[in-house]
């Protein structure tokens, strides 16, 4: 009986591994499609001439008209579309008013086609990776987050899932495709080579339903923080570029071609803030759930174990960032650096602490 | 109408209770005088900038504690570190780097931070209650300057339009009132309330944490399976005991328990062979003089008795040993717990015979048998005697023997798992080496010269190490953290915003309706919300027929253009 069970488990683990490798292959194709999208986009008008950001164009766009799809009902119940009141929006004084770029394809039709192909491939790879996570979970008959291999696999899958969710909600986020797929490939490469651990059950200390709660939210927060960090990095680049353009300096042709197709610095900044602020309460909850679990497992809810310390540091760093956003003289670039430092803390907590520091959380499965 | 109301920036007044800030380059130094300085210092301490810096310092200060071994986590590592680094060790010790989280400098940062926090919350709460009692500020003169704006000419009279706007805004739970020719409305106070709740919750959590540290008690107890080896929760029964500085012995919860059976299972094969799979302690316990109850304690599932929790934290083996003296009289027959020294539960300890033993000459003596136990023996001639597997597969016990004075009465506290050989002599074998033997269950080792014997019985019991902790304030810490999450959620997801609706007769006598909105930060939601409001109001105050060209909403602003 147990022998049969062990055999099916091994089969499932094997299926999981095959799925991971297939996902990596499809991610690679998605990566190539994204590259093609960017290359083809460079021959578009925006890509070639960088028209959008010339000072003349900029002056015209001091206010934008928001015409949300509001239907105004007339007496008869029919909807009149004639003179519906328009809402005019205006940016805060002093803000640069740069419109978002058209995206990697830059309006080039073929480029756009490749972009769509890339997204479809990413979706396929995501499904394969999600299948791998499920197969792994079935093979070990527990939450598939018992070691760093499983953690990395789930982490990248959730990050891609979040990205696809944003796309599905029609958010302007396809620019994330290339950096995301690149890092996901890196992450899976590291996971399958250095972090690989045979599928197995957990040591009793890790076997608790708090595992599901604490670790799943931790992974989700990490994935979303990662998206926030990418947006922050791009904000810093784009902001520098826009500042240069506003001063009338010209960047190199390649730089212009890429930057013009990306969203505006303000959009990146806004997205980064929203994403970070939105998961911050969840991160807080993650730490609390961890503390409750620790209280059950080790007799003390807070023991200053290295993992706890770095969760705390990450939390305080994000709190710093949120404070900085509300503090005169710290908005913008300085706050962005804080956000990156905070994400760095999260990364260190994930890789650094597991590998370099020994603590009670020694579940890394890498010796 | 006063002049100041016409400046649009005043519309933003009090949209938040964040402390107003001076920029770093305009910080004015106070006029001389102690009071001036104190006031200056207080204002600095409770500013956002200093809160930011203190938070940053706090995260920085927490780092060394994760890289340098800490006394409260693992003091053996600290000692090892001290031995390895002869110059660095004492320096670290002076800098309190082995006790980061209770060090003076770490405490200083968080105490300052919490003083700052209290100093920040009090005025903000005060200000916020003021805002709750007062009404939203009146409309600025030029609504076109606000971040979101809409206008049309309507057939309704200004009064009708205002009435309709007031009704509509109130229905949407804005706080709204008519001020002059406009309706002023505000919504999203929950943001501020949530923010304050969050910061107050931080204080609650800190106090709970502090009281938990001060009143905490924590102790360990090793309990062997079977009757008569139980534990009663009094100070003398603990193997080791620590408590916070305000803890009193009378605070110990009265209860007792016995270990009926300990079950440990391990991965039998594969690359993770030997990895523990289950640890379970079946116990019976009683509260005070109450009836006996059954319970199972697992690694993640402590037993809760009142304020105390009993955790299962370790386990090991206690082989049953029988010692007979020279005349064959049994002088010891009991399970002897041995301490594991590796993951495969290779264990060491000492069998001590305190009294009752008489040697061949009829003299009283004490005996000590250093013991080395493996639950799974590799077999004779397999080099060192280390266990191959944590489960009981092929147990073996290696013993040597000493006689003399155990010095248990010397007044020096003794470790029961170590032998003090200063007043003892080893038995020697024929060739003059220390007398030593490896036994399998049921085997007996006879001491030289008929001095008695020691038997490794077939029965091998297990023991479990329990930690009994009491930490008041846990409830408050939990309440505080739940409140913190709720407050944060309100604070980060609720938008606080103001809406003004002005309705006045234009130059040609036709009513002009103007809507404008202002949020705390630029937000995509605000124009959307304003559009919905405009559409709804438009139902009640429809557009007037176009007689003249529509009035330009704002000369400086072309309405059409860019993106949505
Ligand atoms: C224990 C230290 C503190 C922590 C962990 C902390 C954490 C936070 C967090 C996470 C936020 C974001 C929530 C939000 O934006 O509403 C926040 C906001 C805020 N905090 Fe703190 N805080 C601390 C101390 C302080 C102090 C000392 C002050 C007063 C100077 C302060 C004033 C504020 C204000 C005014 C906001 C609102 C900012 C805004 O609405 O954009 N905080 N705090």
Kindly describe this structure:
The complex is a heterodimer of chains A (about 375) and B (about 575). Chain A is mostly helical. Chain A has helices spanning about 1-40, 45-50, 55-60, 110-140, 150-170, 175-195, 210-245, 255-260, 265-300, 305-325, 335-355, and strands at about 65, 70-75, 80, 85-90. In chain A, a hairpin with a 5-residue loop joins strand 2 and strand 3. The radius of gyration of chain A is 24 Å and the shape is globular. Chain B is of the alpha+beta class and about 575 residues long. In chain B, a hairpin with a 6-residue loop joins strand 13 and strand 14. Mean pLDDT of chain B is about 85; it is low at about 1-10 and about 550-564. Helices cover about 25% and strands about 30% of the residues of chain B. Classes of the chains: A mainly alpha (about 375), B alpha+beta (about 575). Bound molecules: protoporphyrin IX containing FE (HEM). Protoporphyrin IX containing FE (HEM) sits at the interface of chains B and A.
Please render the helix and strand layout as text:
The complex is a heterodimer of chains A (367) and B (564).
Chain A: H1 2-41, H2 45-49, H3 55-60, E1 63-66, E2 72-73, E3 79-80, E4 87-90, H4 109-140, H5 148-168, H6 177-193, H7 209-246, H8 253-261, H9 265-298, H10 306-325, H11 333-356
Antiparallel strand pairs in A: 1-4, 2-3
Chain B: H1 34-45, H2 48-62, H3 64-67, H4 75-84, H5 88-94, H6 104-133, E1 148-154, H7 158-171, E2 175-179, E3 182-187, H8 189-215, E4 217-224, E5 231-232, E6 240-243, E7 255-266, E8 276-287, E9 293-298, E10 303-305, E11 308-324, E12 330-335, E13 339-340, E14 347-353, E15 366-374, E16 396-400, E17 402-404, E18 424-426, E19 436-439, E20 444-446, E21 453-470, H9 474-493, E22 497-505, E23 511-519, H10 525-540
Antiparallel strand pairs in B: 1-23, 2-3, 3-22, 4-6, 4-21, 5-7, 7-8, 8-9, 10-11, 11-12, 11-21, 13-14, 14-15, 15-16, 15-17, 16-19, 17-18, 20-21, 22-23
Helix pairs in contact in B: 2-6, 6-8, 7-10, 8-9
């Amino acid at each position: 009986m147990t022998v049969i069970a062990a055999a099916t488990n091994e089969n499932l683990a094997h299926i999981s591994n095959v799925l991971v490798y297939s996902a990596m292959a499809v991610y690679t194709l998605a990566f190539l499609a994204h590259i093609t999208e960017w290359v083809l986009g460079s021959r578009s008008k925006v890509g070639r001439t960088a028209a959008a950001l010339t000072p003349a164009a900029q002056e015209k766009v001091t206010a934008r008209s928001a015409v949300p799809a509001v239907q105004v009902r007339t007496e008869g119940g029919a909807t009149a579309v004639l003179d519906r009141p328009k809402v005019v929006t205006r940016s805060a004084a002093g803000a640069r008013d740069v419109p978002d770029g058209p995206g990697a394809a830059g309006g080039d039709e073929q480029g756009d086609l490749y972009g769509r192909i890339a997204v479809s491939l990413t979706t396929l790879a995501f499904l394969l990776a999600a299948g791998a996570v499920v197969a792994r979970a079935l093979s070990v008959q527990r939450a598939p987050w018992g070691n760093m291999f499983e953690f990395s696999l789930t982490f990248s899958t959730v990050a891609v899932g979040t990205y696809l969710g944003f796309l599905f909600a029609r958010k302007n986020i396809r620019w994330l495709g290339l950096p995301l797929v690149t890092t996901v490939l890196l992450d899976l490469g590291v996971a399958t080579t250095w972090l690989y651990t045979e599928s197995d059950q957990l040591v009793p200390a890790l076997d608790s339903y708090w595992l599901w709660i604490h670790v799943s939210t931790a992974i989700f927060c990490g994935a979303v923080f990662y998206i926030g960090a990418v947006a922050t990095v791009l904000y810093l680049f784009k902001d520098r570029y826009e500042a240069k353009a506003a001063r009338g300096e010209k960047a190199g042709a390649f730089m212009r071609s890429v930057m013009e197709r990306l969203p505006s610095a303000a959009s990146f900044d806004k997205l980064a803030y929203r994403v970070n602020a939105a998961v911050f309460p969840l991160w807080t909850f993650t730490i609390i759930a961890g503390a409750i679990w620790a209280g059950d497992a080790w007799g003390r809810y807070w023991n200053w174990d290295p993992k706890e310390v770095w969760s705390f540091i990450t939390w305080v760093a994000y709190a710093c960032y949120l404070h900085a956003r509300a503090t005169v003289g710290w908005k913008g670039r300085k706050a962005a650096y804080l956000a990156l430092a905070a994400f760095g803390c999260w990364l260190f907590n994930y890789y650094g602490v597991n590998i370099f520091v020994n603590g009670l959380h020694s579940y890394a499965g890498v010796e | 109408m006063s002049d100041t109301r016409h400046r649009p920036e005043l519309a933003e007044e009090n949209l938040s209770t964040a402390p107003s800030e001076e920029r770093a380059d305009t910080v004015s130094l106070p006029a001389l005088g102690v009071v001036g300085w104190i006031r200056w210092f207080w204002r600095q301490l409770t500013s956002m900038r200093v809160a930011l810096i203190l938070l940053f310092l706090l995260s920085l200060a927490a780092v060394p504690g994760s890289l340098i071994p800490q006394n409260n986590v693992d003091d053996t590592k600290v000692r090892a570190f001290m031995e390895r680094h002869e110059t660095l060790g004492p320096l670290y010790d002076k800098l309190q780097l082995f006790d980061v989280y209770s060090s003076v400098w770490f405490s200083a940062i968080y105490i300052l931070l919490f003083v700052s926090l209290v100093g920040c919350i009090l005025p903000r709460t005060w200000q916020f209650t003021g805002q709750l009692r007062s009404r939203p500020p009146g409309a600025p003169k030029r609504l076109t300057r606000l971040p979101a704006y809409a206008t049309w000419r309507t057939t309704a009279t200004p009064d009708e339009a205002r009435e309709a706007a007031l009704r509509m805004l109130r229905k949407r739970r804005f706080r709204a009132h008519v001020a002059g020719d406009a309706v002023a409305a505000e919504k999203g106070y929950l943001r501020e309330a949530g923010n304050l709740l969050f910061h107050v919750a931080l204080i609650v959590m800190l106090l709970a944490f502090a009281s938990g540290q001060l009143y905490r008690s924590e102790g360990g107890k090793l309990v062997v399976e079977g009757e008569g080896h139980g534990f009663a929760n009094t100070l003398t029964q603990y193997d080791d005991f620590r408590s916070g500085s305000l803890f009193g012995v009378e605070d110990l919860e009265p209860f007792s328990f016995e270990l009926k059976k300990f079950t440990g299972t391990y991965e039998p094969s594969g690359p993770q062979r030997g990895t523990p799979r289950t640890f379970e302690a079946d116990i019976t316990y009683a509260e005070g003089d109450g009836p006996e109850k059954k319970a199972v304690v697992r690694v993640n599932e402590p037993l809760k008795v009142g304020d105390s929790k009993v955790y299962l934290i370790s386990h090991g083996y206690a082989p049953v040993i029988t010692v007979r003296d020279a005349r064959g009289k049994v002088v010891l027959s009991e399970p002897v717990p041995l301490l594991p020294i590796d993951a495969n539960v290779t264990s060491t300890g000492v069998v001590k015979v305190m009294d009752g033993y008489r040697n061949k000459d009829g003299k009283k003596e004490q005996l000590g048998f250093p013991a080395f136990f493996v639950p799974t023996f590799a077999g004779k001639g397999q080099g060192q005697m280390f266990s191959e597997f944590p489960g009981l597969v092929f147990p073996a016990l290696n013993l040597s023997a000493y006689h003399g004075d155990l010095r248990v009465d010397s007044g020096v506290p003794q470790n029961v798992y170590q032998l003090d050989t200063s007043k003892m002599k080893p038995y020697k074998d024929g060739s003059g080496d220390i007398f030593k033997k490896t036994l399998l269950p049921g085997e007996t080792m006879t001491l030289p010269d008929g001095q008695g014997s020691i038997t490794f019985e077939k029965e091998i019991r297990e023991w479990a190490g329990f930690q009994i902790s009491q930490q008041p304030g846990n409830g408050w810490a939990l309440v505080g953290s739940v409140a913190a999450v709720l407050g944060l959620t309100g604070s980060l997801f609720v938008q606080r915003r103001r809406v003004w609706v002005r309705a006045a007769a234009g130059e040609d006598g036709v009513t002009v309706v103007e809507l404008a909105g202002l949020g705390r930060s630029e937000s995509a939601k605000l124009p959307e919300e304003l559009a919905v409001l405009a559409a709804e109001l438009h139902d009640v105050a429809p557009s007037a027929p176009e007689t003249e060209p529509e009035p330009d909403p704002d000369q400086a602003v072309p309405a059409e253009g860019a993106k949505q």
